Amino acid sequence: SSTGLARGSCSARFTDEDSIDIPIPRYFIKEKLKVLKERERILAQLLLEAGLGHDEPRKSAKVMVLEEAVRLIQIAERARQGRLRATFMKQIYLEEKRERQARLQGGRGPDVDACAVYIQKIWRRHAQLKKTLKLREEEMIFLGMIPPAYFQRPSAALIRAQKVDNLRCEIQEKHESDYQKALVSIKERVKEIEGPDIKESLQDQIRQWFIECRQLTGKFPDYPDEEQGGSTAIFSEKTPEELLQIW
Questions:
Q1: Distance (Å, whole) CA 234 – CA 228
Q2: Per residue of the chain (247 residues), what is the pLDDT tens digit?
Q3: How far apart are CA 28 and CA 81, in angstroms?
Q4: DSSP helix/strand/coil, 66
Q5: How many CB atoms lie within 10 A of CB 228?
Q6: pTM of this prediction?
Q7: Which of 10, 28, 60, 223 shows the smallest number of beta carbons within 10 Å?
């Protein structure tokens, strides 16, 4: 029951270190994709301006004295000469090794039959490895450990579902765009058609309010300033007496 689940959750005693992964629905990400990208762009811009971006910080130039510069150049040059000497010594060692092998073979060239046998051995090992891998895959498929090859290809139903999903997203975006445009056009139409009537009605209400205040106090009150709310204070659900008490 829900009570037992709540008790179990309380008895677990989650701490701040415990991470609870709440998956975000895909439709939410799709609908808010533009907003999320805009937020990421603004955040990246702010981090870049604050010097906390992903770009590597600029390293300040270090002033080096002449003696230290000469010492670093000497170290680099000695290292370069050491690498060249090591390469030269390796070439000499390989040349001497080839000469020793040639003397041991009595000056004969490479054995063609031995080379052919070696190539055959390598090829047979490669062919047997491919055959063994294929047999292993067939056995795993037979045991149900891995799906067959045709299962790894997308089925016609899956492809059709993806097309329907893409089409639905396109239609949703089109409807959303039409809805936003309709909001703007309806607002402009209401402002154009009903705007004069609404303005006249508001003016009548303000005029009536001034008349009622004059009847109570004997004089016209000052119009509420911006800090007091302006005309909003007049249209609030308060009597003229209450408004006069506030002012």
A1: 10
A2: 444 444 444 444 545 444 566 777 776 777 677 788 888 888 888 888 887 755 555 555 677 788 888 888 989 999 999 999 999 999 999 988 888 877 776 655 567 788 888 899 999 999 999 999 999 988 888 888 887 877 767 778 888 988 998 898 889 889 988 998 898 888 888 888 888 888 888 788 778 877 877 777 777 766 666 676 666 666 665 555 555 554 5
A3: 63
A4: helix
A5: 14
A6: 0.33
A7: 60
